[in-house]
Specification:
The complex is a heterodimer.
Chain A: E1 2-13, E2 16-27, E3 31-35, H1 42-50, E4 55-64, E5 67-68, H2 74-79, E6 82-85, E7 92-96, H3 97-111, H4 119-132, H5 138-141, E8 143-144, H6 150-164, E9 168-172, H7 180-193, E10 199-203, H8 209-212, E11 217-222, E12 225-230, H9 232-241, H10 244-251
Parallel strand pairs in A: 3-10, 3-11, 6-9, 9-10
Antiparallel strand pairs in A: 1-2, 1-4, 4-5, 7-8, 11-12
Helix pairs in contact in A: 6-7
Chain B: H1 4-20, H2 27-42, E1 66-67, H3 78-83, E2 92-97, E3 100-107, E4 116-119, H4 120-125, H5 129-134, H6 145-152, E5 158-162, E6 172-179, E7 185-187, E8 190-195, E9 200-210, E10 215-217, E11 220-225, E12 230-238, E13 243-253, E14 258-267, E15 270-279, E16 285-294, E17 299-308, E18 314-323, E19 328-337, E20 345-354, E21 360-369, E22 375-383, H7 387-394, H8 400-416, H9 422-436, H10 446-450
The chains are: A alpha/beta, B alpha/beta.
The complex binds adenosine-5'-triphosphate and magnesium ion (MG).
Adenosine-5'-triphosphate (ATP) is lined by residues 13-14, 16, 18, 36, 38-44, 54, 87 of chain A.
């Protein structure tokens, strides 16, 4: 079943065209990896899908679960199951992780016409998921990402993903800045969640992540376009040879 | 018409003096007369006065305010008072109607004889030495027409004297009810609060106007703090859209005393808070915490002054604000560090969030430092809600309104959490929740709920 279908997507930021006609489709049960040099538009694509407002879609179409994605504001996309693990998660002083997740979860339940979780059940769920990504319980009382180390912020993203159980998770460089143990924890979080009915888009610079999260497809994004698609082998090739050979192919 | 109120006031003073008979020559009345002369000299301030530049009190000429020269609580029922009670709060309650003490409506719990929680008028009546010693000695009436006017007509208000070594657990609440059902009234309560050596207590001031006519409250409080005493003073302002308020609180701190002034402003038409502390001896601590969350056409001006006169004192000042609609806010925080006041630590911050383009903020830190070995800092910011944070919350399925609520609550909580009376804190939280959204299910922290 098709979860996400992107057709000829063109996006401007401050008058500059960043995405120049993206096409790809994600079906349920699949894991896609997106690689590509810095500044090629990977985060832009991820943010457009999550509904950030600074972008102008000038052309193309994105269908999520049979619906026009651009008809939905950001929060509705999230409630329909889209999750973005941010490349740079923001710090929100004064809002505790616990309160944040409880609000998010209850908004989701309200959307599905379910009763809000009571405080006890919620806390239990939160403890369970915290264990999964091996974050300390004291994190939950702390303000969202405030004073978290780079790696802790990334793990917090995976914790949130585990809490919200999305249908389509987009991970934007969640592996960057992680030590090898943390990398395994993050990969484990993804693998536990992954099943026949959901899908992942994993943006990364490093093939080592793909040793733990095995992608079905690897795409190379360059200058706002997907210039090459392949299997896991493509990632190994990139690791070995860098991007120069692809750039040469395209730029001529 | 300009000057009409002043003309009335001139004849009011004659009327007032005539009813005084014998006590016309008392020590208290000498001060009143002096203050009245000062008032006649400068009248009310205008926007031409530097301290009133952004806070022109033009309303005084707009309405026919009538000064209340005597008290009458007959028309205030117990139900009205109950409306302003805090749930579950065990307190000493002093109720004033149009600035005059009402014994019938007040509820002062049993206490030791030496402790005085009562009315200013009673203290004047029995020639209290403290009144003679302190009245008019701290709140300067030589510069400010409003203070001069209050001093000239000082008759009633709260008189609180907590003797040496006494700790009062119950908050002392001053509930000022202004009755604007039949006429536009001007009230001028006068409070004198004295903390003995090592005493400790908390005071909560509320002003509520009933009726829809304009009302004008012009209170002055003098707080005189002895060695090592600790006073928390809360002013929770949530009055109606036709209420005008110019309040002055002057604190005088002796050695090692700690004063904490918390001012929460949620509604009113025009609110000017003058909060001043003079740190007259060493090792004092002064904390000012302020939060204003206002909308409509509300005007709020927090004018604060912390005057470090002696060495080794600390002051911390934090004012935060959320401005909606066409609210207009002024923050003027003056800190003086006099030549003597070495080793002073003085910190000030003022942060504002504007929810609309029509809201206006004037923020002005004023540091006047005449000593060299001091640590002082100030910072002021004004801006809109952080877009990155909003997007982050929304990307987790949290609706825009709810996301704003979370962020604003987080912003305000830094000040709210400093309120040391749980019932008062809860009430402020619920006022704020009401202002944000009606549905406050998610509002209290989940971990709090489990405690
Ligand atoms: N708000 C913005 N204003 C102007 N330019 C922007 C804005 N956001 C992104 N860009 C530009 O768009 C291009 C693509 O940026 P993007 O963040 O999508 O790259 P990326 O592929 O995620 O890079 P990296 O691997 O470094 O994370 C860059 O040239 C960037 O400078
Ligand atoms: Mg990026």
């Amino acid at each position: 079943m098709s979860i996400l279908k992107i057709e000829n997507l063109k996006v401007n930021v401050n008058g500059n065209q960043i995405l120049k006609g993206i096409n790809f489709e994600v079906k349920s049960g699949e894991i896609h990896a997106i690689m590509g040099p810095n500044g090629s538009g990977k985060s832009t694509l991820a943010n457009v899908l999550a509904g950030r407002e600074d972008y102008t879609v000038t052309e193309g179409k994105v269908t999520y679960m049979g619906k026009n994605l651009f008809d939905m504001p950001s929060e509705v996309r999230a409630r329909e199951g889209i999750f973005l693990a941010f490349q740079y998660p923001v710090e929100i002083p004064g809002v505790s992780n616990a309160n944040f997740m409880r609000t998010a979860l209850n908004e989701l339940r309200k959307f599905r016409n379910e009763e809000p979780l009571d405080a006890m059940d919620f806390l239990q769920l939160m403890r369970e998921k915290a264990k999964l990504v091996e974050i300390d319980k004291t994190f939950l009382n702390r303000s969202v990402n405030e004073g978290f180390s780079g790696g802790e912020k990334k793990r917090n993203e995976i914790f949130q993903m585990a809490m919200l159980q999305p249908k389509l998770a987009i991970l934007d460089e969640t592996d960057s800045g992680l030590d090898i143990d943390a990398l395994k924890i993050v990969a484990n979080g993804v693998n536990k969640l992954s099943n026949e009915n959901n899908a992942f888009v994993v943006i990364t610079h490093y093939q080592r992540l793909l040793d733990y999260i095995i992608p079905d497809f690897v795409h190379v994004l360059y200058k706002g376009q997907i210039v090459k698609s392949g299997t896991k082998k493509l990632a190994l090739e990139l690791e070995e040879k860098g991007y120069d050979w692809i750039k040469k192919e395209i730029d001529v | 018409m300009a000057g009409e109120l002043i003309n009335n006031i001139l004849s009011n003073f004659n009327e007032f003096e005539n009813k005084l008979n014998g006590s016309k020559v008392s020590a208290v009345h000498i001060i009143r007369k002096d203050a009245f002369d000062k008032f006649k000299q400068f009248g009310f301030p205008t926007a031409k006065d530097e301290e009133w530049r952004f806070s022109n009190p033009g309303f005084i000429n707009k309405f026919q305010f009538e000064l209340c020269l005597s008290g009458n609580d007959e028309k205030i029922s117990q139900e009205i008072v109950n409306q302003y009670k805090f749930e579950n709060l065990d307190e000493h309650l002093l109720v004033f109607v149009n600035g005059f003490y009402s014994q019938r409506l007040s509820d002062v719990k049993p206490k030791k004889k030496q402790i005085i929680i009562g009315s200013f008028a009673d203290a004047v009546e029995r020639n209290s030495v403290d009144i003679i010693k302190y009245f008019g000695k701290f709140a300067d009436y030589n510069q400010n027409g409003f203070s001069a006017l209050n001093t000239a007509f000082a008759q009633d208000g709260a008189f609180i004297l907590i003797p040496d070594g006494t700790v009062i657990e119950r908050p002392i609440r001053l509930l000022f009810i202004t009755d604007a059902r039949e006429k536009s009234v001007l009230t001028m309560p006068r409070n004198l609060i004295i903390s003995g050596e090592c005493s400790q207590f908390k005071i909560v001031e509320n002003n509520h106007t009933i009726g829809s006519l304009p009302s004008f409250n012009n209170p002055v409080s003098e707080i005189v703090m002895d060695f090592s005493s600790n006073v928390e003073y809360y002013n929770i302002q949530n009055n109606n859209e036709n209420s005008y308020y110019v309040g002055t609180t002057q604190v005088s701190q002796q050695r090692a005393s700690i004063f904490t002034g918390t001012t929460i402003t949620l509604n009113g038409n025009y609110i000017r808070n003058n909060l001043n502390s003079l740190l007259e001896a060493e090792a004092c601590e002064t904390n000012y915490n302020g939060l204003y969350f206002v909308g409509g056409n509300c005007f709020v001006d927090n004018h604060t002054l912390i005057d470090h006169a002696k060495p080794n004192c600390n002051s911390n000042e934090i004012y935060k604000g959320i401005l909606n609609d066409k609210a207009h806010v002024v923050f003027n925080g003056k800190i003086i560090v006099r030549p003597d006041a070495q080793k002073t630590n003085a910190y000030q911050t003022n942060r504002n969030i504007l929810l609309t383009d029509d809201a206006k903020i004037h923020t002005k830190p004023q540091l006047e430092i005449f000593a060299d070995d001091v640590k002082c800092s100030h910072g002021a910011t004004s801006g809109y809600l952080d877009r990155e944070s909003l997007f982050y919350l929304r990307s987790r399925g949290i609706g825009e309104e709810m996301a704003k609520t979370l962020l604003l609550n987080a912003f305000a909580s830094e000040v709210i959490e400093k309120i040391n009376i749980a019932e008062l804190r809860d009430m402020v939280k619920s006022y704020i929740a009401d202002k944000l959204i009606k549905d406050d299910v998610y509002f209290c922290d989940v971990l709090d709920q489990l405690k």
